[in-house]
Amino acid sequence: MSSSEPAVDDVLDTPFFLRWLTAAAAAVSREAARLTDLDSAIGDADHGTNMQRGFAAVAEALEKEPPGSPGATLILAGRQLISKVGGASGPLYGTLLRRAGKALGDAEQITPQQLADALRAGVDAVAQLGGAAPGDKTMLDALLPAVEALGGDAGSFAAASEAAEKGALATVPMLARKGRASYLGERSVGHQDPGATSSALIIGALTEAAR
Amino acid sequence: MTDESGKVGIVLVSHSAAVADSVAELAKALSGGGTAPVRAAGGTPDGGFGTSPELIAEAAQAVDRGAGVAVLVDLGSAVLAVKALLAEGDELPDGTRLVDAPLVEGAVAALVTASTGADVGAVLQAASEAYDYRKV
């Protein structure tokens, strides 16, 4: 499964991060209708369009003014998401990328382990901002297992992607405890969380960027 | 011309532009001609329902008179948007605070208090105390 993956000591440069976010934008756009469908079941039916608008703004900003480092790339993308998305996912994803970008500093090349650590810092910031915990049926249920699988000696993008997918699927039987879906109580059970689903798309885009 | 100088600014954030605008009007009407600057930041820039950090930041800049800005919000992404902007550090004027208060009642309390020239801490407290006005 991971034979085609880069070894953990590979270096990740700014073009890698541009490829990642561009691939994430394409994935979000491709799956926008599905994200909105999931959100119409337990939310307010705007997750796909919101994420598509936000990531389109990210792709445009990165093309117009390509940043000079991986950290600056994530910070610029996060800023775009915070200001353009228009729903709760904007501040949440924006915080994820900005905090990860800040953790990377000015380094021009980073290791996958550094990326894993930076994303972990971003995920922690998301948890703090939204006040959610694992099992609350949120994006954290995809992101936490993903950053776990990305780090360490056995870590890889494929493992992270798989963990995020599994985490998103695991939200189906969960009872929503945060966000609009939490108003539904028991009726939120049986639906996959839209935020966990879009998180899996974004993590999955890492494997495309590595090719 | 009302005297807004040195007063705490009030920003009202809602997923709906109509709600934010109306709460601003209501607060002005119920505060006996409140003189503190108040601005609504409702909906998205394209007129839809949602919250816009861009509109929130614009409104905060517009009501900033150097004494701080109190931001009242409705729910969900409005709360997260303001928290994320505050975490950015440079998006909102110095002394901007997110107020833990019900939007309508809090807006009236905040505007009345800010209009007296009270500092931002007093404005926050007055708005938060609106949670204690039980109706039943």
Automatic annotation (TrEMBL), chain A:
It comes from the Bacteria. SMART domains: Dak2. Residues 15-208 form the DhaL domain. GO terms for cellular component: cytosol. One of its GO terms (molecular function) is glycerone kinase activity. Keywords: Kinase, Transferase. GO terms for biological process: glycerol catabolic process. PANTHER family: TRIOKINASE/FMN CYCLASE, TRIOKINASE_FMN CYCLASE. NCBIfam families: dha_L_ycgS. This is Dihydroxyacetone kinase subunit L. The lineage of its organism: Bacteria, Bacillati, Actinomycetota, Actinomycetes, Kitasatosporales.
From TrEMBL, chain B:
Pfam families: EIIA-man. The keyword Transferase applies. Signal peptide: none annotated. It catalyses: dihydroxyacetone + phosphoenolpyruvate = dihydroxyacetone phosphate + pyruvate. One of its GO terms (cellular component) is membrane. Keywords: Transferase. One of its GO terms (biological process) is glycerol catabolic process. One of its GO terms (molecular function) is phosphoenolpyruvate-glycerone phosphotransferase activity. It is an enzyme of class 2 (transferase). Its EC number is 2.7.1.121. PROSITE patterns: PTS_EIIA_TYPE_4 (PS51096). It comes from the Bacteria. Residues 7-136 form the PTS EIIA type-4 domain. SUPFAM superfamilies: PTS system fructose IIA component-like. NCBIfam families: dha_pts. Component of the dihydroxyacetone kinase complex, which is responsible for the phosphoenolpyruvate (PEP)-dependent phosphorylation of dihydroxyacetone. DhaM serves as the phosphoryl donor. Is phosphorylated by phosphoenolpyruvate in an EI- and HPr-dependent reaction, and a phosphorelay system on histidine residues finally leads to phosphoryl transfer to DhaL and dihydroxyacetone. Homodimer. The dihydroxyacetone kinase complex is composed of a homodimer of DhaM, a homodimer of DhaK and the subunit DhaL. This is phosphoenolpyruvate--glycerone phosphotransferase.
